[in-house]
Amino acid sequence: MAVELTNRQKETLEFIREYIWRYESAPRLEEIADHFGVKTPTAHKALASLREKGLLYFGRDRVTGFYIRLPEYHGTSQLPFDINIVGKVNRYGEVHEFPKKTGHFPVILPNPDPEAIFALELRQHITAASMQAGDLLIFSSTKKAVPGDLGIFWYGKSWLLVSLYLVDQDPETPWYIMSKESDPNAIREYHEAGYLYWWPLAVNEETEAYFVKAANQYKVPWRPIAPEEIAAVAIQLERPMTI
Q: Does residue 199 or residue 179 have the better pLDDT?
């Protein structure tokens, strides 16, 4: 059934669509008010009426500021739901204040399980992964970890973002070098059991010494791990824009 809109609702929705198409971000509330020559409470009321009809979602929080989301830009008719931010990530990929709620933001995901979905906020750049401060990583605690995933793993003193890949016997892989595992039978058993190698996401020439020191200090076992040892798997990265 088609949604019935007033002329002002149609004009407001069209203005937002054109603004996003032109500037690749949504207009601020004040810009909507200025465009139609009304006060911000009136513009807010127009947005609220469109939200009630399921045509957009808007709000404000300390992470993204004021935001507007159109479901059509996500290829779905679903409205976003709020995801809790429950931890902060530093330049080493270490997760702090987990699982303390520090904020929330809206997102659209296919068939989401609200009880299993959460987000972490990057407070510093992670150069090795081309991630920026302010990025939001969305995780699922029920998705089974597979090679190629980014997961959360306990690293001796804190939770850590780690890359996951197949167990193999390639002497050039960082894990092989660190573990010095040379028994082909042991490697074969790990592989057949579905175990995964892991490696800190933030490792590069600048941070490598930090991880080696932490591994020695906290006696981190350099061994393949079962997928069940990964607390959660990243399913999406959001790069919020303040609008």
A: 199
For residue 98, report the phi and psi dihedrals to the nearest 5 degrees. Answer: -105, 130
Say if CB 99 and CB 128 are below 8 A apart.
no
> Is the pLDDT score of 241 beyond 70?
no
* 129 within 8 A of 72, measured Cβ to Cβ: no
Residue 110 shares a structural domain with residue 223? yes
Same domain, 166 and 222: yes
Mean pLDDT of 39-67: 78
CATH number, position 111: 2.10.109.10
Q: Return the number of other C-beta atoms located less than 10 Å from residue 5's C-beta.
A: 15
**Which of 74, 97, 122 is the last residue before a domain boundary?**
74
Report whether 161 contacts 167 (CB < 8 A).
no
Length of the chain: 243
Give the span between the Cα atoms of 219 and 225, in whole angstroms: 15
- Residue 67, domain CATH: 1.10.10.10
Coil vs helix vs strand at 167:
coil
Mean pLDDT of 3-26: 86
Say if residue 59 is in the same domain as residue 112.
Answer: no
The encoded tokens of residue 182 equal 């040379």
**Tens-digit pLDDT profile for residues 147-165:** 889 999 988 788 999 998 8
SS3 at position 129? helix
Q: Are residues 174 and 139 in the same domain?
A: yes
Q: What domain range includes position 205?
A: 81-238
Q: Is the pLDDT of residue 88 over 80?
A: yes
